[in-house]
Input
Amino acid sequence: MKQLPTSDPRSFMQQADVHCAYCNGGYKQKGYSNVSFQVHRSWLFFPFHRWYLYFFERICGKLLQDDTFALPFWNYDSPSGMQIPAMFNESSSPLYDRLRNQDHLPPVVVDLNWGSRVTGISPDKNQINYNLNLMYKQMITNATTPRLFMGQPYRAGDEYPTSSGSGSIEIAPHIPVHAWTGDPKQHFMENMGTFYAAARDPIFYAHHANIDRLWNIWVNNLGGKLFSDPDWLESSFVFYNEEAKPVTVKVKDCLDSTRLGYVYEDIDIPWLDAKPTPRRRGVRIVAISQATQVFPTALDRVLDIIVTRPKKLRSKEEKEEAEEVLLIDGIEYDFSKQVKFDVYLNECDVELSTPANTEFLGSFVDVPYHKHPTSMEKGSVRFPLSSVLKELQGSDEISGIVMVTLVPQCGDATIGSVMIEFDTSKSSGRLKKLRNTKEKEAAEEVLLIGGIENDCSKQVKFDVYLNECDVELSMPANTEILGSFVDVPYHRHPTSMEKGSIRFSIFSMLKELQRTGDISDVVMVTLALRCGDVTIGGVMIEFDTHRARGELEGSQAVEPRNDRAYKHHPRPKAEESKATLAARKAGLIQMAGEHGMLHGL
Ligand code: C2O
Output
């Protein structure tokens, strides 16, 4: 690959530049010729890099004349893989890159949450545990919804850069492993420490194979749910395939890695047992004067910020539908420098808190950019709070405020705001009878009684009841009576028969009437005539969106998988790949990839 002429799109240099083009403004958005396209910091992160590796792997296979070739993954989430794998370290090997941090060569243990001025903690045993706790946080604690794990929506026309919408894994370990590997003596920490150059280091592909593997683990082992939003499913990228032909591929066609012909070697996942625990429980947070909290504020010292929770008591159903999320927004920093700060919740002594503690929420971290459409970067970072708060609070004591502590580690940043938002992305795609908070906010469920015909010269009245089996016992004091249709006689009217209709919003009544956990998809409406003669045209449910500007979120299902049987070639652990290769040469391992599926796309 390195020997191909640089005019060949399959050459190593051009392949590395594919990554650069997709993250340093090389492409404009279709239909928005002045908006740059970016594959980081949003829900495009996982699918873009999966397709990118796929074609890289296919090109390698073609050049090696071995269509079972599989990229190795750098297994840094496991103690045995927490240093640069041996295969990348021999200076005579094409896998070697001299632009790496010379202080981080083996046996130095990687810091999965690294920021330049922060040296990893020592001794190595602590660093290993720190990494395992951090993996648990990023894969489980901070990954409770599709948006929090895979990144925020990024749709056609969205500004570049969107305020940083990176998911938990993109933030860490992804960014820190880039920054930890790159050479700090280079201006932008080339190669790995900046995206335009990162893919020039062959270790990039092993790093991203592991990121891709973590995505699979989240979906297959941890029950993570993919987005069903068509804006995500239909997003597309262009790559050169192994025949040096450009092909267009869509997000929806990479969601099942077995369809792309590979699986990951099934190995132990040690961080599953590394759940952080609270350092202290039941710490009382006292509100400090709001006046001291003026935003935007420079993060030039440790900042304590009191945040009010908009809703401290939420029902079980509300919690299932919407995650309570801490949002640190409007983070401004110079894009050409590395930046990192740590975030703690209800922690009175940040010096004592580590990723082994629940109080440490995680970090905001970014690598320097070489080129950028704006000189200041605007970023944001999010952390789910429900389970963390539950672990931290003393029994039955539910506080309406939380204390957030920001600790600068490197770079200069300004904080725009700190607040709580609700993330409903894990409940999208449920039945309409179960509507998420955003949908409920966007549209009221309304009972419509239409086509009511009555003689316009006579008085008319009927009462309307909901789920009431005995209307005689129901009084206006009861939830069951929705209200009445009533009209006075008209003296003159252009038509002799009046056509009317009446609407009742029913959402809050249904909530009060239903038994816990029991949500019915039918309601019973009872009409009781009190005076006049009336004909009813129809009774139905409609949705009234007038009170909100919001759009309803699509709840389209993911397309059924193509269940053609594919054979898989497992991507091996990096440190084992030599042995695997030898075994394969000796004919001990038979693996065959099924190929050609992309030609039709
Ligand atoms: Cu596209 Cu790890 O970067």
